[in-house]
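As the next step, I wrote out a protein sequence along with its fold in token form, included below for the reader:
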Amino acid sequence: MWYIILSLIIAIYIAINLALPGLVSGSTSSYIIQPILWIALGIATFIIAKYEGLNILKFKKIKRWGLGKSPFQAALLIGGFHVALIVIIGLAFGFGRSPNMITTETFFTFLLYITAPLLGMEISRAYLIKKGTSSKRNITLIIAFVALLYMLLQIQFIKVLMLSPGEPVDIIQFIGETIIPLFAISLFASYLAYYGGAIASFSYLGIIAAFKMYSPLLPDVDWVIISFIEMLVPVIGFLLIQSSIQETAIRTKLSKKLSKRRDPTLNWLAFSVVCLVIILFSFGYFGVQPTIIASGSMSPAIETGDIVLLEELPFNEIKEGDIIQYEADGLSTVHRVYEIKHLENGSTIVITKGDANNKPDVDRIMPEQITGKAVFTVPKLGWIPIAFKGILHKMGIPV
């Protein structure tokens, strides 16, 4: 009867995101109706699982557990590690006050607010994984599908509608800040549920949710740093658990296949990590920022379609002959420094020239217009986004 549970999950999502906002106040929906819906889902799932003879709270797929004594203990350890990393980030970059004002009156309200959805989600998650993997076929796809489903449950529909196709930066930030971290955490929670049932996944997610809700201080850092942490911990968790399972299997000689098997779900997480790294790299968080060359004015040193990596440097470190990027009239240009002039009034201007041009550029560049110095060139890779933009332009889509 998995289809009943799936239907209930979809119905709850529609009710929370589409029906309730127009009927009741936000506080009534968040602190009364939504907890009731999630608890009802958990109870319904548990009853159906009992009727079908399924134990969804605690699995025993691995008799001996290398990381801790059980999946529950492993989940607690990794959840604690997740929180510890967040605290370390706060110590390194500074803390800000949490938006949640915890008082004696609100303590139990917030407890219900975070516990009810977790109970409903993790009990139903464990049920769907238990049912879906009972045949031992397509285990990876089942875990990935369940992870995707429960990631979507945590995304507010209104936030998706607010995204504008004409604002690609906002879309990229939404993907990097919300989609990828949520999917990584959901994938790891599904992985825990596969091995340890609802108790294991609930323990991991519960520690993180409780810290974010009740901690009076949270790291005051850019979203990319927190997103990176929330991607890094599931990666480490996957590796630790998989390693402990394989080592235990080898040590006890229970299963040679288990010791040699590579868990395919790691590939999904690796793909997510690559996506996040690309986003961080594109925004310059690794010290350099890429830019695509769309003209041949710097040929032969830099050709059309090349990607130039730019490093932000103080102006006094830029000299004649360097290739720089500067902003003028809303456009970015990558040209070589032809001459640096120090004027009588104490100001400085930079004259640039494209290697393929016969004359220096007309624009006189001020130091504050320079956005970076070219430090490396990747040949031809930029043709991919250039071609994609051309296709979109022909389709009438503004880019």
Q: What stands out?
A: The longest strand covers residues 331-342. Residues 2-282 form one domain. The beta strands are 95-97, 217-219, 288-292, 307-311, 323-328, 331-342, 348-353, 364-365, 370-378.
